[in-house]
């Protein structure tokens, strides 16, 4: 198992009443899966993804990734964990302003162990950008690119350190339909190459590209199924 | 992330907000420039004061005759007549490692006449060591020699002021005979112009003769006591030892019993030097402190801008944390940015300070002394200001919660 979550609670105190953003969720994801987490706003799906991404800590419960308990790590361990094990794709791309595509993609390699030489870093960044179809826009800044192109830079960046897991938070939320399909198809292709993907979305047709669909409501998993057309675009 | 990479990120962040960075650095620039200029002018003034004190003599120790006890009646200072030129020669002979050179001094004053011009001036009777002791050379002609002293020859050397008054039409006085107390003296030399001393006295208004000549012809004394011994030490570091040794030797030569007080007194210039330098250093410190305050204000400016910068880039911080930046990496990024701002400001300020101090020195004819240490210290201080005032904003950035940063709008 890649991910094992057991009995996870996340509680927010809002004045007098407490809100359970996660209300005893248990979930496991195996290597090679493409999971879509669905739900309305307030269902706890974003909290779930933030905890999976080690950006947020649960109130209680355990989160084990590749056999390691994540919820007990220090800040430095978490940073290294995110650097080596995770790739993030955000709804608003989160690219650095006024920075070229190549440098955006290189960024994860600067942190952590700095295992690659500057030259090897550049070669890998160009390779990844070519793979996402931006070989001709290596030195463009975000302002010079469309939303779809920016999201592809973000995906290339997520792949830089070869993580086993990619977390996508509404990756198509800011894109038009054509770009959305392009991006989600691209995620499908990555999944076909063996990368595990967990994606949060509230759009049914985007979720239908995943192999497994989890629907959350009020901090609980209420439904789980395998979409018939999972992988239909391949 | 390597330091070099973090430094590049910091440089780029500074470069992106050129105007803002320049204005922020301006606080440091002005502060450092002010500190350097003030210290340069202050140390310059101090050095000038020191050199004017040194012009009275190199590492000078003065020995004066002391008081004398005559049958229970104590005479005032200078009453004793036991101090002789031989004392000085003995000091030089016995302590060659302490004493560089020495001269006795016998004082007098007289009206001097050359043809229709006359002038009243003071007369110093000295030994051959005088030019070296005072650091004052003969400009024209020659100084007298040991033989002139032995024989008490009537030769003299004029100070420039005396030359100006006795030879107003510019003739060379060398070889001329001038009359002092109805005796004829031959001019064998003219001293270089020395100017006024730190007390404002004209040091060139003087006639120099062999001390034996002054003793016989001006003081008309048959004793061989002198008014003063001037001893030039090899180094001021030996001052205390020299004073002790001289006292012991002079007491022995003057045959003073243990219970008797010294019949001479030894003085040196350190008190005057200390007083002068303490005045200038107090002023320098005071002005430097005022200038440092502007540095601190500059530092606060850096802190302010760094806090703005951190807030502005909250999302960037969140993203960097999400892709694996440790709190330390974020801390270093912002700390280096603040330090770079401060150091670049410090560098520009140093250049401006040096140029400014020189310009002020040229216009006002003030002596300027830019010491390496003042440049290094103020530059190091600007780096320190960068770290000190950059730390809080950087630390705040490093302790942010990644999820809050990513959600920050």
Compact summary:
With 234 residues, chain A is α/β, with parallel strands linked by helices. Chain A contains seven helices and ten strands.
Write the layout of secondary structure elements.
The complex is a heterodimer of chains A (234) and B (409).
Chain A: E1 3-14, E2 17-29, E3 34-38, H1 45-52, E4 60-65, E5 68-69, H2 75-85, E6 86-89, H3 101-110, H4 118-131, H5 147-159, E7 165-169, H6 177-192, E8 196-200, H7 204-207, E9 212-217, E10 220-225
Parallel strand pairs in A: 3-8, 3-9, 6-7, 7-8
Antiparallel strand pairs in A: 1-2, 1-4, 4-5, 9-10
Chain B: H1 3-16, H2 18-54, E1 60-65, E2 69-70, E3 73-74, H3 85-94, E4 99-114, E5 117-126, H4 130-134, E6 138-141, H5 146-151, E7 155-158, H6 160-166, E8 177-180, E9 183-191, E10 206-210, H7 211-218, E11 228-233, H8 239-253, E12 264-268, H9 270-312, H10 314-322, H11 327-364, H12 372-398, H13 402-407
Parallel strand pairs in B: 5-10, 7-9
Antiparallel strand pairs in B: 1-11, 1-12, 2-3, 4-5, 4-8, 4-11, 6-9, 7-10, 8-9
Helix pairs in contact in B: 1-11, 2-9, 2-11, 2-12, 9-11, 9-12, 11-12
What does this structure look like?
The complex is a heterodimer of chains A (234) and B (409). Chain A is an alpha/beta fold and 234 residues long. In chain A, strands 6-7-8-3-9-10 form a six-stranded mixed β-sheet, sandwiched between helices. A four-stranded antiparallel β-sheet of chain A has the order 2-1-4-5, covered by helices on one side. In chain A, 32% of the residues lie in helices and 27% in strands. Chain A has helices at residues 45-52, 75-85, 101-110, 118-131, 147-159, 177-192, 204-207; strands spanning 3-14, 17-29, 34-38, 60-65, 68-69, 86-89, 165-169, 196-200, 212-217, 220-225. Chain A is globular, with a radius of gyration of 18 Å. Chain A contains seven helices and ten strands. The longest helix of chain A has 16 residues, at 177-192. Chain B has two domains: 3-52 and 274-407, no CATH class; 60-268, no CATH class. Chain B has a six-stranded mixed beta barrel. In chain B, a hairpin with a 2-residue loop joins β2 (69-70) and β3. Chain B is elongated, with a radius of gyration of 34 Å. The mean pLDDT of chain B is 87.
